[in-house]
Amino acid sequence: MGRRRKRTSRRKPLVVAAVLAALATAVSIGILVLPDGDGEGRRGGGGGRGGWAGGSADVPVVTLPPAPETVPAVRLWEPESGIGWQPGPGTRVVADPDGELADEADLLAEELDAGRSDGPAGPGDVELVLDTEAPDDEVRGREGYALTTAFGRVTVTGRTDTGVFHGTRTLLQAVRGQGRMPAGTVRDWPDRPQRGFMLDIARKHFDAEWIEDRIREMADLKLNQLHLHLSDDQAFRVESDSHPEIVSDPHLTKAELRRIVELANSRHIAVIPEIDSPGHLGAVLDAHPELQLRDADGDPAPGAIDISDPRSARLLDDLLREYAPLFRDQPGPGPFWHLGGDEYRALMASDPEASYPELAEAARRAHGPRAGIRDLAAAWLNDRAATVREEGFTPQVWNDGQHPGGVVEPSEPRQVTYWTGKEIGAREPEEYLREGWEVVNLNDEYLYYVLGEPNQFTYPTGERIYEEWTPAVLRGTEPVPDELAGPDRIRGGRLAVWCDLSGAQTTEQVARGIRMPLRALAQKLWNPAPPVLDWPAFRELADRVT
C-alpha cells in the first residue's frame, strides 16, 4: 500500500491569521514584545532609529506608557504594553452592592457617568476589590492601594475601603488629565498618616456649603483630616444645647455639622474639633464674666478663663461631652480632639506669679509649695485631656500649650501640633521629639494663611511649600535631624487658615488663595521623593487634573 498523505490541519490558516492580526495591532499602537536570545520575552527598547529595533528585521520598538498624571504623584508605576483603559458607554463599576465598597462604587459610578454591577467584571469595567490580607509587596498599609489596568479593564485593590477610595481618586485624575488610564500597575501609599486642612470658623463664619466644597477638594488630593477651630475670642460658632448663651450668630447648627461630618467621612476624611482653652475664650466669657481671669490690678486678661475656679472646668467639660457624639466614630487614625492650650495670658506675662498672684496661690494649694501657674495650666489641660479620652478621643494640643519641667507633667497619650517658636520661653521642635511626643507640622513660616497678614505673617504660596518645605521643617526653614523626622515621629501636617482680620478676604478669595498651597502640601505629605516636575509644570498639572 502506498503511504498515506499527511492530513493538513484546517486550523493552521486561522492561527496564522490570528498572529498576523495581533502583529498588526501591535504595530498600530507602537507595541511589540520581542523574544531575546534565550527565548524569554522582552520589550523592545532603544537602539534603533526612527522608532525601529534595527537589525535584519524592521520591527517597532515597544513604547511603554508613562505614569498617570496625578496630584499627588503616584509612588510606584509598573508600566505594561497595551492600550490601557478609558471610560465608555458600556463602562460599569463592579462591587458587591451590599459590601463594604458599595459607597465607593456608587460615588465612582456617578463621577464616571457609568453603570453599576455586582459582576463579574469584563472589558471596559472598573472593579473594586477589598483584600484585607493583601501582601505588602502588593498593597502597603491601610491607605495604600494597587490599581492595575490590563485587558481593557481596571482593578483597584486595597486592604481597606480607604485604600480603595484613594485608588479611585487616582483613576479619576488620570481620566481628567489624559482621557484614559495607561496600561500597568500603580502601587501607591502615603508617607504621612495625617494630611490635613485647618479652618478657623470662629473669627469668620464659613457656611456649610463652603466647607463641604473644601471636603470634596481635599478628598481629590487624598487629604484626610479637617480640623475645625470652633471658638475663639470673637465668636462661638456651633449650636449648643448645654450652653446656648455662649453661641454667636451666624453659626453652624448641629444638623449642618452632622452633614459636614457625614460628607467628610464618606470621603475618608476625619473631622477634628477644637474648643481652645484656657485662652481664646472671649466669646464664652462674654456670657460668663464671673469666670474671667483678672490680674493683680483687677484688670481682665483678654480671652483667659480663671482656671482656679471649678466652675470653669465644669463649663468646658459640658461642651466637650456635648459635642463628642458628633465626632466619635470616624475613619483613619484617631479620632482626635484638639484642646488648644496656646496663648494663655497668665503665662505670657514676663512674671506670671507677680502678675496673677491669685492663680499662683491656687497652684501652690493644689500642687504643693514648689508649684507655679504653669503647673496649674498643665493640670487644666490634663483634666480636659482626661475628659476627651473618656469619650474615646486622643487629645492634641498646640506646642505652646505643653508646659514641661514643673511639678505637673503633661499627661499621655497626646500629640503636639507645632506651629511656632516665637512665644515666650519657646522650645525647639527637636525637644518635643526627643521627649517622645508625636508631632504634627503646622509651621507658621509655610503653612499659616492668616487673613490680612498681621504680625508679619505673609500668605503662604504653593511654590514655597513645593520647593522648600518638608514635614521635617517644623520651625523656620531648617529641618530637624533625620533620625527624628520619620513618619512615626512627625505624623503629618496641615495648612491652617486663621481669620485674624476677618474682613480682609471673602470666603471665595480664601478658597482661591489656598488652592495651590493645598495641592503642594498634598504632594509633600503623600510622596516623600523630591518632586520631578518644576513648579510651573506642577501648577499646570494641578490645573488640569484637579
Explain how this protein is built.
The structure is a single chain. Mean pLDDT is 90; it is low at 1-57. The chain folds into 2 domains: 76-188, Chitobiase/beta-hexosaminidase domain 2-like (Chitobiase, domain 2, 2-Layer Sandwich), CATH 3.30.379.10; 194-351 and 390-545, Glycosidases (TIM Barrel). The strands form 4 sheets. It has an 8-stranded parallel β-barrel with strand order 10-11-12-15-16-17-18-20, surrounded by 4 helices. A 7-stranded mixed beta sheet has the order 3-9-7-8-6-4-5, covered by helices on one side. Helix 13 runs parallel beside helix 15. The N and C termini lie far apart (80 Å). It is elongated. With 546 residues, it is of the alpha/beta class. The chain contains 16 helices and 20 strands.
List the helices and strands and how they pair.
Blueprint: H1 12-28, E1 33-35, E2 41-43, E3 76-79, E4 92-94, H2 102-112, E5 115-117, E6 126-130, E7 145-150, E8 153-158, H3 161-178, E9 184-188, E10 194-200, H4 208-220, E11 225-229, H5 254-266, E12 270-277, H6 282-287, E13 292-294, E14 300-305, H7 310-327, E15 336-340, H8 345-348, H9 352-355, H10 357-367, H11 373-390, E16 394-398, E17 415-418, H12 429-434, E18 438-441, E19 448-450, H13 462-468, E20 490-498, H14 507-513, H15 515-526, H16 535-545
Parallel strand pairs: 4-5, 4-6, 6-8, 10-11, 10-20, 11-12, 12-15, 15-16, 16-17, 17-18, 18-20, 19-20
Antiparallel strand pairs: 1-2, 3-9, 7-8, 7-9, 13-14
Helix pairs in contact: 2-3, 4-5, 7-11, 10-11, 13-15
Overall radius of gyration = 29 Å
By CATH's scheme, which homologous superfamily of the largest domain applies?
Answer: Glycosidases
Major sheet: size, sense and barrel closure?
8 strands, parallel, barrel
CATH topology of the largest domain: TIM Barrel
- Classified by CATH, the class of the largest domain is Alpha Beta
List the strand order in the largest sheet. Answer: 10-11-12-15-16-17-18-20
Number of domains: 2
